[in-house]
């Protein structure tokens, strides 16, 4: 019997609602927020003792997630927050695929290979068929794999020469993403940080010889520094390493962390030599769930040649009836995102990716231009590399408020724009950063500028300083 066929129970005066024939009738006849399970709280940290209706469980989780806010207004994160309806449909259809089970899902495995070969070509591999790559959970895992390959190549070369493999080190910018700090910590590699400064805003090869020695496994160059979005000049770093090799004989490879720029530079700066056109570049990683435009989490890493990935790091795994090569930190993981990447490659092609990335860059340049015109701010960069830029408070503008207060003020309008200190050596400098992603339209950007101006006008009218207790850095990678 359907709900429409059932007779509505009319309560007599004084009759309890429990006179209904059963809880099932209540659930069918009462579509409002008064069903069993919605009138009381679920336990937060203990498994509930019994079942609940799927509609009830869905509504509770849906409502809690709703409290996170509007992801489209989150200008702190690099991670994509939008895909088109066909991608959503494909995602729901393939969410059950296990990327590691290449015997059961051979077509997904084949598509994974197609994707990294496309990316190898995009990064100007001298021989895409002779290179090797893999998908990962995100760019952090991709970086870890790139770093492991650097360490193992260094160890093999040292052992072959009868030398010690103790105390390996890796050269990094002080503005490096935290995943590299984790790599050095987890795999016992000394992190040697080259400080950035007003004169050298990124690692650019300056005085690199002071950090390099025979135990250096490689140098990490970042295409899109997390703090500011600026490119590190890979070709200039390679030239500095060429000179070091000429002077000392040390042959030190580069891993390019292209978490963001790896999917921007090929389209917006095609003549910039940062990729496998630079011979010293052994491997490149990127985050597909950033400017690869895929939902989280997916990354890619590609090595110039098969020889650049030591064979003893690759396992031949027997799993669910088949054999497969595996080089990963994770095992079972989603295959859907790989298919989403392939969908986007087919859907957009080179021209489509150019248009999407150019639109984001245009919005970033508009925003940085408008913010740069404001007396209160001084730009650190303008978003002409990846569509990300940062600014600082103009010295002497005010002693009543800081960028943390502005960040909090903008949050009242729904905007998430982080304020945070820069790395060591310039940690007394606080900046704000905007990440422009696919989905931030020019109209939204104009609304943001209006809200920033309104917030600054409000703060500038303060007659006494804002409190500074409890202010939090909201840096997001």
UniProtKB/TrEMBL annotation:
KW Nucleotide-binding (keyword) present: no
Keywords: Decarboxylase, Lyase, Pyridoxal phosphate
Matches recorded under InterPro entries: Glutamate_decarboxylase (IPR010107), PyrdxlP-dep_de-COase (IPR002129), PyrdxlP-dep_Trfase (IPR015424), PyrdxlP-dep_Trfase_major (IPR015421)
Listed cofactors: pyridoxal 5'-phosphate
Catalytic activity: L-glutamate + H(+) = 4-aminobutanoate + CO2
Protein EC: 4.1.1.15
GO aspect biological process, one term: L-glutamate catabolic process
Name of the top EC class for this enzyme: lyase
Membrane-traversing stretches: none
Molecular function per GO: aromatic-L-amino-acid decarboxylase activity; glutamate decarboxylase activity; pyridoxal phosphate binding
Region Disordered, annotated ranges: 1-22
Coiled-coil region list: none
Residues modified to N6-(pyridoxal phosphate)lysine: 290
Keyword Lyase: yes
Gene Ontology cellular component list: cytosol
PANTHER family recorded: GLUTAMATE DECARBOXYLASE
Family according to the record: Belongs to the group II decarboxylase family.
Name the UniProt record assigns to this protein: Glutamate decarboxylase
